Structure to design on (310 residues):
């Protein structure tokens, strides 16, 4: 009997690239043996801080078959968001590149819907679920397992060809496919640029980030006041942080994305330090319409800006 899995895998990968994904790798849906002790230790050291949702669904995070009945394959995808555009006022509070355009959750979900539709049209009925970092799925572990890249010292997934400025997403399906080889080599070598550059010393060991010290966590996930110990250590970031990626030598291979939805709009990059310091509800709604920045709400963004200025 002819095995269709190789043909189906190629069809899916070709369509993923056509839809604008940067890369697509496929791995077998099984228990993540290596990740279990790592995740347990990270949680026990409270590196997740207020992200209590990380404690939920521990088993599901490690076994996709508990998320999708009869799951056989995890299709991992990456989507580029790298840009060379910058905020025009160098003294303005900074925003992470990934939030310049439309909220990536919506953009990627639409592409995953289209990919699922393609699979059903060309291969047959498939049962599965799409995930965009909002469910108990260890994106980086699956991306590494499917050959997309390795996990760098800053705990981001890094690709030799594309650096690390990309989002990760998955389709977990009950379809038998041909599996890629896991990415085995760590190409960080003796480089410690990300560890040395982090102003809050959040990277406590290679591949281990203490979330409670990370500027991204402090400006987005943390709902309480930012602790005084981080005064003058935030490097003027008001939403997210790109430092450990900006200094990574592999990001010299990042290419500018061509995703229309990720292009900055509504005058976002032109906001001056003064305009951001005095931001009103009206300006916030106009500039950040459909943006990931809405997660912090105006009160959160104001808290961050006030902390930087105080």
């Amino acid at each position: 009997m002819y095995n269709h899995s190789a043909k189906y895998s190629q069809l899916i990968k070709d369509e993923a690239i056509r839809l604008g994904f940067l890369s697509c790798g496929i791995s077998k849906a099984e228990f993540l043996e290596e990740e279990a002790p790592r995740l347990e230790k990270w949680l026990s050291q409270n590196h997740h801080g207020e992200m209590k949702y990380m404690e939920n669904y521990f088993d599901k995070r490690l076994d996709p078959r508990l998320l999708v009945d009869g799951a056989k394959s995890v299709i991992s995808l990456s989507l580029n968001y790298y840009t060379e555009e910058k905020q025009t006022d160098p003294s303005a509070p900074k925003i992470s590149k990934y939030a310049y355009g439309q909220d990536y959750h919506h953009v990627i979900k639409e592409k995953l819907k289209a990919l699922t539709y393609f699979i059903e049209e060309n291969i047959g009925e498939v049962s599965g679920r799409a995930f965009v970092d909002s469910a108990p799925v260890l994106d980086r572990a699956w991306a590494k397992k499917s050959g997309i890249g390795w996990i760098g010292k800053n705990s981001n997934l890094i690709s030799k060809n594309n650096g690390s400025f990309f989002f990760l997403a998955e389709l977990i399906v009950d379809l038998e496919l041909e599996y890629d080889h896991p990415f085995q080599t760590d190409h960080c070598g003796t480089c410690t640029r990300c560890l040395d550059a982090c102003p809050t010393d959040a990277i406590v060991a290679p591949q281990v980030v203490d979330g409670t010290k990370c500027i991204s966590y402090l400006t987005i996930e943390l709902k309480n006041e930012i602790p005084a110990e981080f005064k003058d250590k935030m490097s003027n970031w008001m939403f997210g942080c790109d430092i450990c990626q900006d200094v990574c030598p592999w990001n010299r291979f990042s290419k500018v994305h061509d995703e229309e939805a990720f292009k900055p709009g509504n005058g976002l990059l032109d906001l001056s330090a003064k305009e951001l310091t005095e931001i009103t509800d009206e300006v916030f709604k106009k500039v950040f319409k459909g943006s990931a920045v809405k997660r912090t709400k105006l009160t959160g963004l104001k808290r961050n800006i006030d902390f930087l200025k105080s």
The two ends are 71 Å apart (CA to CA). The first strand starts at residue 23 and ends at 28.
